[in-house]
């Protein structure tokens, strides 16, 4: 991933996608990890809250993609995003600089800390973020009109890259169009953003983060799921 991302279509068939959506629709939406608004429906700790999707998501094609990164990778975080067709939700350029852990601890190189929905998040040392990757599974065709990710290719190689310092005379923006059943694989350090929806089409995405790193000082990944 020289550019910090790649798009792979046809990881799931139309029937696979339908099965995944049906499984999500049966979930109990009254839990605190479920966020509902006019602009966004989200399920945090997704694989924990909707465990029935696990065998549907981790098919042989997805496992092969994960194995391309090497051995020992496990899930560290999972979120489901459903952006309705009339959504005004947008996300400004940012990097995914934090990881979810089980507790707060004073460990050199880890910080700052935040807490969201009783879950601790911390910015780890940069070398951990360089080893991690994210897979975004698309359940709808996604383009610039319904909130496809915009990215700055190569930005993952520039360390912590503050959006306000982007020099657009030097950088280029790329729209990541993905078909339903396709995936986008990306570095958490890749600068990315998304626009408001303008074509009244839904955008449903499953966001899963992976690592093969054990954390320092007795810290544990709060959503760790081993794949072997």
TrEMBL record:
Cofactor(s), names only, from the UniProt record: Fe(2+)
Gene3D superfamilies associated with the record: q2cbj1_9rhob like domain
Cited InterPro entries: Phytyl_CoA_dOase-like
UniProt key word Oxidoreductase: yes
Record-given protein name: Phytanoyl-CoA dioxygenase family protein
GO molecular function, one term: 2-oxoglutarate-dependent dioxygenase activity
Pfam families: PhyH
Keywords carried by this UniProt record: Dioxygenase, Oxidoreductase
Transmembrane segments: none
PANTHER family per record: ECTOINE DIOXYGENASE (PTHR20883:SF48), PHYTANOYL-COA DIOXYGENASE DOMAIN CONTAINING 1 (PTHR20883)
